[in-house]
Design a protein that fits this description.
- The strands form two sheets. Strands 4-3-8-7-5-6 form a six-stranded parallel beta sheet, with helices on both faces. A two-stranded antiparallel ribbon has the order 1-2.
- The longest helix is centred in the last third of the chain and has 27 residues.
- It is 49% helix and 14% strand.
- By secondary structure, it is of the alpha/beta class.
- The structure holds uridine-5'-diphosphate.
Length: 261
């Protein structure tokens, strides 16, 4: 695997989208009976990671850590020399369609969709069928509220996944729930790869809309998301807007004043 870059105490893979897709394909083709999982940090994850031991542990064991948030990518460019920074944004919501694009009808990529509100995964499935003939959805499940604390419910989910044996498990439970759940159950997950990708299921279903391409290309997707869900996201983003610049300043200072041994 290519090197990772350390930012704010988080190790992030220096991978382009096509390299991330190739790595996932390699894991799918691997006959080993283990589940690799992928996390996609944005500013909010970085802020949470400063004090959340469970999330830190999940990140430590992740097979790939891909930069989702444009401000995190910008920070890598500001703090590290060219060549040591992150090459491009690899957002979870772009990774899933890119992976689906790479699937071939002659050897379908099997997918289990876990998360989102009832009915959403089924609508996502219908859209996937229409758009990607190389992708076969082999199961969906929308867990009830509080499922993560219910052992029987967890067992039920693990059994459903084991029965479907998907190549890819798409997990959209919001952060940090999805990263904690996948980490806790990683040894029981009978999928080749689990992708912790937030609202991607909603996007696939057409339940929520992505920011226009021009906003994404200039790194303003987060502005679009706050504007479309102000009640849920305003407080979170306000906190991040205060904490993240502080973390950036601290990191800038640390990198320029390394502790000498
Ligand atoms: N979600 C879920 N179960 C939960 C909590 C959230 O299925 O217990 C789903 C929710 O329906 C949505 C997604 O998780 O589809 C949240 O994605 P988003 O990236 O917006 O969450 P965030 O990480 O921003 O909180």
């Amino acid at each position: 695997m290519p090197a990772r870059v350390e930012l704010f105490g988080v190790e992030i893979d220096r991978l382009r989208m096509e390299e991330a897709v190739a790595q996932i394909q390699a894991w799918v083709a691997d006959s080993a009976d283990r589940c690799h999982f992928v996390v996609t940090p944005n500013v909010d994850h970085v802020v949470m990671l400063q004090h959340h031991a469970g999330l830190q542990a999940s990140y430590r064991d992740a097979g790939m850590v891909l930069v989702d948030g444009a401000p995190v990518l910008w920070a890598s460019r500001l703090l590290h020399r060219r060549g040591n920074d992150l090459p491009e944004r690899v957002a979870g919501s772009d990774l899933v369609p890119a992976l689906f694009d790479s699937a071939e009808e002659s050897k379908p990529l099997t997918v289990f969709i876990l998360g989102a509100a009832p009915g959403v995964a089924e609508r996502a499935t219908a859209n996937i069928r229409r758009q990607w003939p190389g992708v076969e959805v082999v199961g969906t499940y929308s867990p009830p509220l509080g499922f993560e604390r219910d052992e029987r419910e967890n067992e039920l989910i693990l059994n459903k996944i084991a029965a479907a044996k998907p190549d890819i498990l798409i997990v959209g439970l919001g952060a940090p729930k999805q990263e904690l759940w996948v980490h806790k159950h990683r040894n029981q997950l009978r999928a080749k790869v689990a992708l912790c990708v937030g609202a991607t299921i909603d996007f696939l279903a057409g339940e929520r809309s992505r920011a226009p391409v021009w906003m994404r290309s200039v790194g303003l997707e987060w502005v679009y998301r706050v504007a479309s869900e102000p009640r849920r996201l305003a407080a979170r983003y306000a906190k991040d807007a205060v904490v993240f610049p502080r973390l950036l300043a601290r990191e800038w200072w640390r990198l320029r004043n390394p502790v000498r041994s």
